[in-house]
Design goal:
- The complex is a heterodimer of chains A (188) and B (164).
- Chain A has 188 residues and is mostly helical.
- Chain A has helices spanning 3-15, 19-41, 44-61, 71-88, 99-108, 115-134, 137-148, 153-160, 164-181, 183-186.
- Chain A has a single domain (3-186), classed as RNA polymerase sigma factor, region 2, helix turn helix motif (Rna Polymerase Sigma Factor, Chain: A, Orthogonal Bundle).
- Chain A starts with a helix and ends with a helix.
- In chain B, helix 1 (3-14) packs parallel to helix 3 (34-49).
- At the A-B interface, helix 1, helix 2, helix 3, helix 6 and helix 7 of A face helix 1, helix 3, helix 4, helix 7 and helix 8 of B.
- The structure holds zinc ion.
């Protein structure tokens, strides 16, 4: 049996209420979901909370998932949307003022890159994440799977059940949109 | 092709989505045109900015925390269990007894066997999920085992070419 067919059966069992089958899906996807969120947020504790919320929401919505074979893409979209909402929620931007600045400066004193570089890098990372969040869902998903996870396009096509040509054209349109949004960082 | 036409398909060129004869036109133009080359570099820089991300293990207790919050969902039971209540049981037993007595003479004659239907040939109105569950009914561990095996085989060959 192919991986996809095996996974479809596990998804179907989880849809019917089998928590052990859902545990199998967690062991397959927990690491990648946590990694994506953590990469976009840069905070372990929040990443764990959001990863937890991702799987709890997935469990609740599973019976409504029409295509069991779309589970992986569907789960990633739950995680990406939760992450986007968290990033956009009105909250104080943490380390950019007051004592925190000094604290960070002290931590950075021994690093090769100086505080200014690190600040620029974290601001750049924030801008990249925000730009990715502004892509439409189709583009966002393939950009995350290809560039962040490092998956080859053929594998993405198999996992999402779409032709490689479609993966490539979504990557191209996504790249085009990101290039415009990230102009200050990518133009020479 | 002029610059405007090239710029329109340059993102597709960057990710390798163009057919070879069109890609050849783009290459020829790029060799001559500095401003389109600059745009190509911007698109390539965009790709470089995106990743890859480091893959990190989730906290060890994450699954336990998730599992503690999963509300039980009514699992679909086989029809006989739903209806198997004491009162129904007595009536059912009586009905079976009568049926056996009536059918006894018929059962002496040979009965043609019904061939097993393939699992995926689902009847109208049967959901795909139900068909999948029915398929795995007698082998509850078959799916997990084959999934784990398939993963083990597939994991190491993740190193496809990357688009930069
Ligand atoms: Zn040009």
């Amino acid at each position: 049996m192919s991986t996809e067919a095996a996974e479809e059966k596990v998804v179907a069992k989880a849809q019917a209420g089998d928590q052990r089958a859902f545990g199998t899906l967690y062991s397959q996807y927990g690491r990648v979901i946590y990694s994506i969120i953590r990469h976009m947020i840069g905070n372990e504790e929040t990443a764990a909370d959001l990863a937890q919320e991702t799987f709890i929401r997935a469990w609740r919505s599973l019976p409504r998932l029409q295509e069991p074979k779309a589970f992986g893409g569907w789960l990633r979209m739950i995680a990406l949307n939760l992450t986007r909402d968290w990033v956009r929620a009105d909250r104080p931007t943490e380390p950019l003022d007051g004592e925190n600045d000094e604290e960070m400066a002290r931590q950075w004193a021994d690093d090769e890159a100086g505080p200014a570089d690190r600040l620029r890098t974290s601001e750049q990372q924030r801008q990249v994440t925000e730009a990715v969040h502004r892509l439409n869902e189709d583009q966002r998903l393939v950009i995350v799977m290809h560039h962040l996870e490092g998956k080859p396009v053929a594998e993405i096509g198999r996992e999402l059940g779409i032709p490689v040509g479609t993966v490539l054209s979504r990557l191209a349109r996504g790249r085009e949109a990101l290039r415009i949004k990230l102009a200050p960082y990518v133009e020479e | 092709m002029d610059c405007a036409e090239i710029l329109k398909i340059l993102p597709d060129y960057t990710v390798g989505a163009l057919e070879e004869h069109i890609a050849a036109h783009v290459r020829a133009h790029l060799a001559e045109c500095e401003s389109c080359r600059r745009e190509l570099r911007a698109l390539e820089n965009t790709g470089a900015l995106l990743g890859p991300m480091p893959a990190v293990d989730a906290p060890r207790d994450l699954w336990a925390a998730i599992q503690a919050q999963l509300e039980p969902r009514a699992r679909r039971k086989p029809a006989w269990r739903v209806y198997w209540k004491p009162t129904v049981a007595v009536a059912a037993a009586a009905a079976i007894l009568i049926a056996v007595l009536l059918a006894w003479p018929l059962m002496q004659a040979p009965v043609p066997l019904t061939p097993d239907l393939p699992v995926l040939a689902t009847a109208e109105g049967t959901s795909y999920a139900e068909a999948q569950i029915a398929g795995a009914w007698d082998q509850p561990l078959a799916d997990e085992a084959s999934l784990a095996l398939a993963m083990a085989v597939i994991e190491p060959e993740n190193s496809g070419e990357m688009i930069q």
